[in-house]
Amino acid sequence: MGARITLEQCKYSPFAITCGLYGNMVHTIFVGTENEGQTKFDGVRSELDYLISIWPNQDAPQEAIDRFHEAINGFVERYP
Question: Where are the domains of the chain?
């Protein structure tokens, strides 16, 4: 169980935030300025903390697994 988040200058867009939940999701968000990137970075980090808090165990009931996947989908929709 773990997560990663990086704000970096990139070749195709001025800045990118790349984040992931190991074994579940990898997502990249492109932003136009470093300031915008830092603001989004803070929001993404907060949401990743939430996703980690609801990350189901291997023996979790299906309801918990579904809730986790729905939360990931919501995250991706909020940060296209």
Answer: 3-78
The residue with tokens 């300025």 is: 33
- 31-52 pLDDT, tens digit each: 999 999 999 999 999 999 999 9
Enclosing H/E stretch for 37: helix 34-53
Which residues of the chain form beta strands (DSSP E)?
3-9, 15-21, 25-31
Predicted structure pTM score: 0.87
The count of other CB atoms within 10 Å of the CB of residue 15 is: 20
Residue 8's pLDDT band (cuts 50, 70, 90): very high
Residue type for position 40: K
Task: Please give the Cα distance from 23 to 3 (Å, whole number).
Answer: 10
